[in-house]
Amino acid sequence: MDVVNQLVAQGQFTIIKQPLGFIKVLQWIFAIFAFSTCGSYSGTFKMKVECKDRLASDLNIEVDFEYPFRLHQVYFDAPTCKEQNKERLFLVGDYSSSAEFFVTIGVFSFLYSMAALAVYCFVLEKYRENNKGAQTDFVVTAVFAFMWLVSSCAWAKGLSDVKTATDPERVITLIQACDEPENRCSEEYDPKVSGLNTSVAFGFINLILWIGNLWFVFKETGWMAAFAGTYVPSQEKQPAPDSFGQGGYAQQDPYAGSQGGYQPDYGQQGGYNEEGGYSQGYEQQPTSYSNQM
């Protein structure tokens, strides 16, 4: 219990309130509904055969079938209306492939959703580190969305065939005694397939959830920045300008101009003399101090 309490204390369960975690919870729940309504199904339909000879009749023919719907292995005994002899008949069709595929996708979706929730709650930092976890999550989510599309469509077609193969009116045509006009064959009640219809509905609900979850996982991958145009590629080296007078390189010296800045004249002659003074070679004649006096 101490380990569990420590994990719960360190968990970041606020992620469940966010779309990324909340949709995973919905995926976990609806995956359970999908594979449980299909995998736990069992149905029964009932027929009766009234022969001309009442003693050879059978008014209570029950046929049971269940997941994974290998109907070609389901059999029942029907009267031949010839004395008290009976014949063993089998249903038609094997729809286990689509049913088992649907249930398998549901189970794996349930397991992955539970694992993803654990990662979100306990190691969210590593999940977002370098976006590797989010990118893997996005790819797996896309695969599951595609698998839900395929499995739901396949199971919807398989369920339609199961309904047809277990329709008592069609099964009656397999009984040879019902071909005789003096014998009367009818159905007592049809199998209840509302649970199977619900499983198909849950399959397409899961498809919508997994497709919708792609957007929220995509925002965690970091690919959104590239699509939004914020990705900055490596800059190419710009060619050198032809001259400093072109391409904006001939900028005005901030110290030059007519605003009183210092403007050196490189044509003037000047330098230090031997006595350590600085003499400038101006063109005008210097005025001696004694003459001014």
UniProtKB/TrEMBL annotation:
GO terms for cellular component: presynaptic active zone; synaptic vesicle membrane. InterPro entries: Marvel, Synaptophysin/porin. It is a multi-pass membrane protein. The keyword Transmembrane applies. Keywords: Glycoprotein, Membrane, Transmembrane, Transmembrane helix. Residues 275-285 have a biased composition (Low complexity). Its main location: membrane. The keyword Glycoprotein applies. It is found in: Membrane. Residues 237-293 are annotated as: Disordered. Residues 15-222 form the MARVEL domain. The chain crosses the membrane at residues 25-43, 101-124, 136-157, 200-218. Belongs to the synaptophysin/synaptobrevin family. This is Synaptophysin. It comes from Stegastes partitus.
